[in-house]
Amino acid sequence: MLQGVAAAAELMAAGLATPDADAVVAAAWLHDVGYAPSVRSTSFHPVDGAAFVRAEGFSAVVVSLVAYHTGAVFEARERGLLDALAEFPEPPQLLLDVLTCADMTTGPDGSRVRAEDRVSEILARYPLHNNQSTDDHDAEPMRKHQRGGGSRPLALPSATTD
Question: Domain span at residue 17?
């Protein structure tokens, strides 16, 4: 999956007019490092991953992207970990949107998927009324994106097969 997220991020970041475009690709490779047992401390992978990435000397932008990727604020709120997440500055929104789009258009096997299908897969893995989300209000941001109502739609460029 990481290779797929990184490839998608690289395609999308290529069009960004910012010196931090490379940070998106680095964060795409690192965004799930917090799942590794050796770096777990809170059992909240965005925070654990960001702490690890910071300790390894990555840039503040990469650290913040790992911390806030793919709805981390919503999950931190649900888990009572907003203070832990707040230890990290918020990343630039455009860069976060690119990383989130790359993550949400890559399936668990690394293949490209539609964002709606990825959201459905995540919601099936973490159904409502468990430790991921306790009510429909908390899941609404994912459901909104599933319905195509995200604030700024991003599209993954279609792959060419020349």
Answer: 2-114
